[in-house]
Amino acid sequence: MGIERTLSIIKPDATERNITGVINRVIEDAGLRIIGQKRVHWTFEQAQEFYEQHLGAPFYPDLCKFMSSGPIVVQVLESDDAIAKYRRIMGATNPVDAEPGTLRRRFAISMQQNSVHGSDSPASADREIALNFAPDEIVG
Ligand code: IDP
Ligand code: MG
Hints:
Blueprint: E1 3-10, H1 12-16, H2 20-29, E2 33-40, H3 44-50, H4 60-67, E3 72-80, H5 82-90, H6 103-107, E4 116-118, H7 122-132
Helix pairs in contact: 3-4
Bound molecules: inosine-5'-diphosphate (IDP) and magnesium ion.
Inosine-5'-diphosphate binds at residues 59, 63, 93, 111-112, 114, 117, 120.
């Protein structure tokens, strides 16, 4: 496995409720290091590009509207096995299926407003990090 990087997003439902700090605490307690972080507000078009793998899905237009509805915190996380590790602490997409103690089980409002994003593979992580960060914005 080795040291990996993954892209995390704290979504608008979480920034709105002022819970970015508690989410970062969970991330750091799990041994993931936050080596890049910024608070931004995406345009609808930026959300469309980020989620282009879901183009054509019934939830895609509403997802892009939601992800551009308010501030988000984009982050690069680094650790051994970072991609799978972060997916484990996030929990399942639908919070009713998420394990107790996971971020989504604790904080998600709905399947759409599920508080956090994490890359699903090394290829996705590379693409998502490059879309959101310049090299000099990542300091390991
Ligand atoms: P993931 O975030 O767990 O990787 P994906 O299937 O990649 O889940 O979906 C991306 C995001 O789209 C989800 O996190 C969620 O916000 C939203 N989403 C996915 N499926 C649905 C759905 O069936 N209804 C509403 N929103 C959905
Ligand atoms: Mg996904």
